[in-house]
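Journal club prep — side note

Before the paper discussion, L.F. wants everyone to see what a predicted structure for a comparable chain looks like in token form. Sequence:
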Amino acid sequence: MLRSGIVGFVLIVTLGVGLFFSPAGAYAADEQNSTYEGKNGLAIAGFDVVAYARTGKAIPGQARYRSRYRGSVYAFDSLRNQQAFAADPKRYLPAYGGYCAYGVRLGRKSPVDPSIFDVVDGKVHLFLNQATKFAWEEDRKSNKKIADNNWSKMIGNR
């Protein structure tokens, strides 16, 4: 019980700081999409969204491999990954527009550290920090169900 209380306190503090001070990124939106962008103006702070699925690693993209999709610019580590994304972007887009999965579970669009992720049912879920990832993993199924419901409301009410 004490462990859950400590985790809860850490989450409140870290999510609160992330909500009010989000130097890690900005938020881009168009009529069809809402995507987390890093300081560099790239979707998912320039990390290769295909690499998460193909390698199980968070790999920064390269400047020479970029594609625009729904108003956001994505970077890739290789031409192969760029082409895979172009062929089926929805397959590789992170859940919840790349915002912190646990933040969305709480009804917030929180920034992420693109190196902290989890793959659930083939979909990449990103997190603000290790504490939010840990909280997500405590009850992945329930957290995902709540986040899915919240996200549908969040993107429907822009």
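L.F.'s comment for the group: Residues 2-156 form one domain. Keep this in mind when we get to the figures.
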